[in-house]
Amino acid sequence: MGGGIAICFANAGIPVTLIDAGAESLKRGLGVVDGTYESMVKRGRLSPQDKARRMALIRGTLDYNDARDADIFIEAVFEDGALKKKIFAELDRAAKPGAILATNTSTLDIDEIATAVKRPQDVVGLHFFSPANVMPLLEVVRTAKTAPDVIRTVMDLSRPLKKTPVLAKV
Q1: What are phi and psi of 86, to 5 degrees?
Q2: Is residue 127 among the annotated active site residues?
Q3: Which residue in the list 127, 146, 158, 163 is annotated as catalytic?
Q4: What's the CA gap between 124 and 142, in Å, rounded?
Q5: Which class for 24: exposed (0-12), middle (13-18), buried (19 or more C-beta within 10 A)?
Q6: Distance (Å, rounded) from C-alpha 130 to C-alpha 146?
Q7: Distance between CA 122 and CA 146 in Å, rounded?
Q8: What band does 22 get if pLDDT is binned at 50, 70 and 90?
Q9: What angle, rounded to 10 degrees, do the helices at 23-42 and 48-56 form?
Q10: Model's pTM, two decimal places?
Q11: Could you read off the pLDDT of 124-155 as tens digits, one per residue?
């Protein structure tokens, strides 16, 4: 999912930093992104120059601090509540004040995930449907404490991503 979400942002001209736990999985994820773009080039849906421009917007890292200046973080690991809470605690530590902390969960309680941070007002669900770079629907899930400006920001962000946002509660 992370690769598909990264493609959505790169397609909109927005720089992306992919964070992964291991070098091999990061390399594999970046390879999937490259392969997706290469497939689009082969089908004539994207020029090689556009592929290069979009790939240049995506960088990978193993260190959360490399993305500390980001305005939004979107966690997209598998559906494991303990793992998501661990990641959110790291994001809470590394992200600048006011950064939006989003989860791509489709089944877990986002209010529970938000207990891992000191700023639950900045936590929101952004459920991209698979494949994220193709499906137009974006489920925006507000928690009991999500701030109105966070909701407005992610709803507005859906436009350049070419997504149709649907606001829901946990």
Answers
A1: -60, -45
A2: yes
A3: 127
A4: 5
A5: exposed
A6: 25
A7: 6
A8: very high
A9: 150
A10: 0.96
A11: 999 999 999 999 999 999 999 999 999 999 99
